[in-house]
Design a protein that fits this description.
Chain lengths: 218, 173
């Protein structure tokens, strides 16, 4: 006895709802529109899906891609006219090249933009920087998003995405720096948002002097 | 390049590795795109892998992420077409409406979930209810029957008719 259409479709629906592979039999094509729709509804139930870590790892291996952790630490950014040094070792270099007083990046922050013959450039009054909001400034050739920290502190990150050479913009609704080239976002402090992390944004040195914000630029 | 290259040293990775790195991130979106159409992890993984294997060797070295994404989506649509064609005998023209949709502009399969919601809104109350309970809430046929004060047999028929009706809904994109 042939399977009734409603039984045929419910068999497929039941398998989909249990997360099973689409195994179709002869005759199932008669209800192809219903089957395609059932697959879409089953997917919608699960919402947005990410690859499992095991599958991602398998793909990475097969593609011969650089493992992400290695990529994050070894990938270097070379910005024209700017030397970029790692934050982890940058402290000592900073100490030799700067007169102090600038924000000191943490080791986790990654790399520090260090312009050759850099100079501190006034980018505005501290009062003009709203707490928690990143504001773009220009210090010669250096573009940066400056964020006010507390009453008297500031921090700054490069306005260029760490992954693609695109200028970021501040989305106040998301409270994030957005890269227009691939819709990846960063916090105002430069950390990558999302499950799979990009390298953090380069750190730009900034400080407050007599109520004025200064950025190390060119 | 030595494996123990010091932090901060300016290094350059081979362009091929760079493309694969970009592609891995973009393949997350491809995976979500495929999953939203096949509804299960095993098939989604197989098809994503097919996309990767087909597309990566043909990607231009040093390609920007946007170009990688466009190529991967074009390949994904082709692979999905082959999948449904093989499984159900659907022709490319029958799949056109479903697969020719533009690349999602938002992350992962949010647009697909939104699309399903809009499809359900177009259905009659009973059809929408049976699909919501069964698919979105994960009810068994028996539980749906109790909820809708019906029988398992009647719910099964209604589920089929609701799916057919949902498949006929055409949304203005």
């Amino acid at each position: 006895m042939s399977e009734r259409p409603e039984d045929r479709v419910d068999r497929i629906v039941g398998a989909l709802l249990r997360g099973r592979r689409l195994k179709l039999r002869g005759g199932d094509a008669e209800e192809k529109e219903a089957v395609v729709m059932a697959a879409r509804l089953a997917a919608a139930r699960q919402g947005s899906q990410l690859m499992s870590p095991a599958f991602r790892q398998r793909l990475v291996k097969e593609l011969g891609a650089t493992p992400r952790e290695s990529w994050m630490t070894r990938r270097a950014a070379l910005v024209a006219g700017l030397g970029v040094v790692a934050g982890a070792v940058g402290g000592g270099l900073l100490g030799r090249s700067l007169d102090g007083g600038g924000s000191q990046p943490s080791a986790a922050a990654g790399k520090v933009v260090q312009p050759t013959n850099g100079r501190w450039i006034d980018v505005g009054a501290l009062a003009d920087f709203a707490p928690g909001q990143a504001r773009i400034v220009r210090a010669g050739a250096v573009g940066a998003f400056v964020t006010r920290d507390g009453d008297n502190g500031v921090s700054a990150v490069s306005s260029i995405c760490s992954d693609l050479p695109c200028e970021l913009w501040w989305d106040s609704s998301q409270h994030a720096l957005v890269c227009p080239c691939h819709n990846r976002t960063f916090t105002a402090k430069g950390s990558s948002n999302g499950t799979y992390k990009l390298r953090s944004l380069d750190v730009v040195q900034a400080r407050v002097q007599d109520g004025r914000v200064e950025v190390l630029g060119t | 390049m030595p494996e123990d290259a010091a932090e901060g040293q300016v290094v350059e990775l081979p362009a091929a590795a760079r493309v694969a790195d970009v592609a891995i991130d973009e393949l997350e979106m491809i995976y979500a795109f495929i999953y939203s159409r096949v509804g299960n992890r095993a098939d989604a993984e197989d098809l994503t892998q097919q996309v990767a294997m087909k597309a990566i060797p043909r990607l231009r070295q040093g390609a920007p992420a946007s170009a990688v994404r466009g190529y991967l989506f074009a390949t994904a649509r082709s692979v999905l077409g082959g999948f449904w064609s093989t499984r159900l005998g659907l022709s490319e023209s029958e799949l056109h409406e479903d697969l020719a949709m533009a690349m999602p502009q938002r992350g992962y399969s949010e647009e697909s979930v939104e699309r399903v919601r809009r499809v359900l809104e177009q259905l009659s109350d009973n059809y929408r209810r049976v699909l919501e309970l069964r698919f979105l809430h994960g009810y068994s046929l028996k539980e749906v029957a109790v909820e809708m004060r019906s029988t398992v047999g009647a719910v099964k028929v209604m589920q089929l008719r609701a799916l057919r009706a949902a498949a006929k809904v055409r949304l203005d994109e």
